[in-house]
Amino acid sequence: MPKYLVIAQILVSVALIATILFQLHGGGLGGIFGRSDSVYRTRRGIEKTLFKLTITLAVIFVILAVLVVASAP
Fold first, then answer.
1. Torsion of CA 54, 57, 59, 65, to 10 degrees
2. What are the structural domain ranges in the chain?
3. R_g of the chain computed on alpha carbons
4. Rounded CA separation 11/55 (Å)
């Protein structure tokens, strides 16, 4: 198993955790129990960038995970 894939996966996972933590908080568990105080709105500025970056990092993480498993002896 190539070490560079494992190192890349670790770096991507840390970046993914950071982007998730930087996103706006406040969703909570209210939506699960039927509370509808959230308003649907469009993402703008840095929030939109973080959202797209989170999706991109998640896709890269999944691809790296598949490559690491496929390259295992």
1. -140
2. 3-70
3. 16
4. 15
- Measure the CA dihedral 43/48/50/56, to 10°: 120
Q: Count Cβ atoms within 10 A of the Cβ of residue 56 and give its class: 0-12 exposed, 13-18 middle, 19 or more buried.
A: middle
**How many angstroms separate the CA atoms of 8 and 57, rounded?**
11
Taking every pair of Cα atoms in the chain, the longest distance, rounded to a whole number of angstroms, is: 51
pLDDT tens for the chain, 73 residues long, are 689 999 999 999 999 999 999 886 655 554 555 555 555 667 788 888 999 999 999 999 999 999 999 998 8
Token output for 26:
């406040």
